[in-house]
Design brief:
This protein is of the alpha+beta class. It contains twelve helices and ten strands.
């Protein structure tokens, strides 16, 4: 049994709240409390649940101070999912994603032997795979949880890079030694949901259970070591999140405070002519490469916002590029879902994205 394999390699079964408290830093004032003013700019995990026979599903915001009560509601549903991301608003769409607290992987086709192979390598002196913080029994497979030391702010450029990193790690995790389904690698975006720990599985009477292995959370630098260099996140180019409170920012940057907080002035931005938008389409056709296709469409959306091109036209142009981008690789398809995901960047908030 998979449970026996986990225990053999030192897995310690923990409660659902143990995992979620560790992952979302509950009680540390990082996610929003119920009734807390929106001006604190905090975000929350979002659960989704649906019972058999329901016409549609339901979303539930998980607040810091009543997390456990809401979690129990999700666990009672026939189907419920949650991921390692917090969101602004009431729906877990990528455009509203705020911070990533954990990167989670689905590994199906797992047997006692393949799970043992995976754990054996995690304990080796030169491991091929990063050692999960938690391994979750999801019914017919396992979920691998990698927690971050500090949540990753999901600005447009980091969403792109995290997706590339997750795809590269997925490709490494799914192989003939770790799964019987190694020829059918299941790539999932960063916004993917996973069965709620303590909730129901597809197997009647069996709940989702979690086992702790590694108590040391990860940095992006540590995860980078497990993927090829061209898939690694360049941390020097990430947008850094300020750790200053509004009161501290007022003292340190009085001119900014006067302009943006008191006078409510909009952020500065640069704009471009439609010529630059058309130039970028030509650049894509002339030099797009595998590994940068998502970035190409993301930038097309941003150029569209900056140059006044309609969202409908940008989507039309992006879909016309789809056959070309997909044909760049026989083994790594580029799909309509990738296009739609990249087009999340068609948003006025991204007009300040730097040149």
């Amino acid at each position: 049994m998979l449970e026996d394999v986990l225990r053999k390699w030192g897995g310690k079964e923990v409660s659902p709240m143990d995992v979620y408290t560790d992952m979302f830093h509950l009680g540390e004032n990082q996610i929003q409390r119920k009734g807390e003013p929106k001006g604190e700019f905090k975000s929350n995990p979002l659960g989704y649940w649906k019972n058999h026979g329901d016409n549609k599903g339901h979303y539930r915001i998980l607040f810091d101070d009543d997390f456990q009560e809401t979690l129990k509601e999700l666990q009672q549903a026939d189907f419920s999912i949650l991921n390692g991301i917090t969101y602004f608003g009431r729906k877990n769409v990528q455009a509203h994603a705020s911070k990533m607290y954990a990167m989670i992987f689905d590994l199906d086709g797992v047997t006692d032997e393949t799970l043992g192979n995976f754990l054996y390598n995690c304990f080796s002196n030169s491991p091929i795979y990063p050692f999960p913080n938690y391994i979750v029994l999801s019914g017919h497979g396992v979920h691998l949880y990698y927690l971050f030391k500090f949540p990753i702010p999901l600005y447009p450029n980091i969403k792109l890079q995290l997706k590339e990193l997750k795809y590269a790690l997925t490709k490494k995790l799914w192989n003939q030694y770790t799964t019987t389904l190694w020829q059918n690698v299941q790539y999932q975006g960063i916004n993917q949901g996973f069965r709620v720990i303590g909730g129901k599985t597809k197997i009647e009477g069996v709940s989702v259970r979690a086992f702790q292995f590694n108590t040391h959370p990860y940095s992006l630098e540590q995860l980078n070591k497990y993927v090829p260099e061209d898939k690694r996140i360049d941390e020097s180019k990430l947008w850094k999140e300020s750790r200053l409170t509004l009161e501290q920012a007022k003292k340190k940057y009085p001119e900014w405070y006067e302009k943006r907080i008191i006078k409510k002035a909009k952020k500065g931005s640069w704009t471009c002519k439609v010529d630059l938008y058309n130039w970028w389409i030509k650049r894509i056709k002339d030099g797009a490469q595998v590994g940068h296709r998502y970035f190409c469409i993301m930038c097309l959306a941003i150029y569209g916002v900056k140059s006044g091109v309609s969202e409908e036209q940008v989507k039309k142009d992006a879909l016309e590029l789809l056959p070309f981008l997909n044909n760049l690789s026989e083994t790594e398809p580029f799909t309509k879902n990738d296009i739609n995901s990249a087009l999340d960047c068609f948003d006025e908030r991204y007009i300040t994205f730097p040149i």
